[in-house]
Write a structure and sequence with these properties.
Blueprint lengths: L22 H12 L9 H5 L3 H25 L18
Length: 94
């Protein structure tokens, strides 16, 4: 996967319903699309409006994506230098 670059600060996200800061949400969705996270029909507006079912759908999609990445890292074995933890970077083999 591609890491968010530069890292997104918490201050880039809306702090409440009346907050119009969208930079963080746009960067989040760019990250999700760049990393082919299958999130279904969740939109930035769904998250911004606090639609619980859509936010849960997004969280489940992220969890499924991370689980697949961890399984792949495990399959590759400990001989590679795969970073463990959330949102691992891929290992390039030459």
């Amino acid at each position: 996967g591609k890491p968010a670059s530069p890292p997104v600060l918490d201050s880039a996200f809306p702090q409440g319903p009346a907050d119009d800061k969208l930079d963080g949400l746009f960067q989040l969705f760019d990250f999700l699309l760049d990393n082919e996270v299958k999130m279904g029909s969740v939109s930035i507006n769904d998250v911004r409006q606090g639609k619980r079912d859509k936010i849960l759908q997004l969280i489940r999609a992220l969890k499924g994506w991370e689980d697949k990445r961890r399984a792949l890292a495990t399959t590759l074995g400990s001989a590679s230098s795969v970073q463990s933890g959330a949102f691992m970077a891929p290992v390039n083999y030459f």
